[in-house]
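Exercise 7. Given the components listed, write out the predicted structure of the assembled complex. Treat all entries as one system.
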Amino acid sequence: MFETSFSPTHAAAAEEACLAARATPMAQPRLGLPQPVAARIEQALELLARTISPQRRVVHEGDRIYRAGERFVNLYVINSGLIKLINLAADGREQVAGVKFRGDWLGLDGIADGEFACDAIAMDTGEVWVLGYDKLLKACAREPSLMNLLHKAMSRQIASSRDSLMSICTLPADARVADFLRFLAESLAERGLRTDQILLRMTRAEIGNYLGMTLESVSRALSRLARDKVIAFAGKGRRDVQIPDIGALSSFIQRCLASA
Amino acid sequence: MFETSFSPTHAAAAEEACLAARATPMAQPRLGLPQPVAARIEQALELLARTISPQRRVVHEGDRIYRAGERFVNLYVINSGLIKLINLAADGREQVAGVKFRGDWLGLDGIADGEFACDAIAMDTGEVWVLGYDKLLKACAREPSLMNLLHKAMSRQIASSRDSLMSICTLPADARVADFLRFLAESLAERGLRTDQILLRMTRAEIGNYLGMTLESVSRALSRLARDKVIAFAGKGRRDVQIPDIGALSSFIQRCLASA
DNA sequence: CGTTCGATTGAGGAAGATCAATTAATGTGG
DNA sequence: CCACATTAATTGATCTTCCTCAATCGAACG
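Answer.
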């Protein structure tokens, strides 16, 4: 139970773990839910741009948007790219605590204590919008819909981290990996990106760390998923994953639960 | 960089798993941190009482403050008693997702989608304050410190659920149980309650569900903790736990990590 | 072209789950 | 208040899952 695994909070992990081909903007609704979520994200970004014209910051793979312990001044909203959160314990343990996508907020954990609780690291080239917290609050006072946006973002993070916890606590290893892929694919679909082929931007070790298992267990789970034709590997490396049918991932998870 | 470790979230688990003897109000600082946290909680409740004189609702063991799927209208703040949160998955899996204490907010997960994502159940007789969300927002507009309170409450939940995830993902079973007790004792200490003897208000099955292990594993972990004199059982049942030294729990956890 | 890093796969072992039996505590009805 | 039923907890014996260790392979990089 302790490995270099990475366990996904589906909502959060999906959003960040994988980076779909950034090309392929907004085709058709592919899942069933993409439309409303996509619209929500677009409206949110549009509102932010209009009401507080935030500073834009381009980030590259490996850049730290902020670090644990750093003084909290700004919140961040992802416009593009994938960001992972790394949580540090006092005794040195560290864990990937989430993956974030376009439209997600970063740094909300810093409000309480005035300093950030984890590192936020770009997995990709992308752009984050920098929102001074004070300035944001002033804007919220003028524009209630902005306040509503902020509250919903926080609320969503609270709810989705509970879902992650439940996946990790109640699913066997294979199902956790499948659920992680499902989360990833769903997050991408919600943002109008293609989900039939996605590029994992995390190593097996990171995925395992996130999911509470070893890298070997992640590898074996992926091999089994491929053997069962639930996923397929594209390209040469084993980082391009094809997911012909997201529903098949859910079936796989249920099969794992049933056989236990 | 990432290892296969998984660590439990101390903060969240402690808040709910155990119930200290409610008698023994506010003696002395016992840990080192209680004072500031206790003061923060008192000030928060005082501010709420003064600015929006919330409706007060007495709850008894087993009462549901709200249920998953119910329409979100109110937020709740615990004045006394212990509340557990139960998360439900679509396929029927359920999990204890948290334990909440005096000063904690409930229902924040409902803001995003307009309905609650889990059940909140009293483990104890207690009192919750009911805050109409709309009314609260209006009061926040008049009183910025109230808004600050709300934001910090949400932020704290985000940060502490990450810590919980880490505990569960990076600690072996025995250490998870120890960490849970530590969380519990610390939460009680922060609220000025005695921590040398606490009454668990959850069954072994509930604790195990919360920590991602079986009830037998919880039982064995507690037995080992007692054999190592880190805890002791008082009274007849095995639900009264004495914790002479909270530091010994941390040492125990480190010992578990070292031996692996 | 060799080095390095990530991934895969196998073999063996350990942590924890499962199954099962026993004991203790709580509650019920007589 | 006592038999009885019920639920919770403990403990042991086994079995499964997953971790650990190790070897191999492929890709990427200098």
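Discussion: Residues 81 and 126 of chain B are 4 Å apart (CA to CA). The mean pLDDT of chain B is 89.
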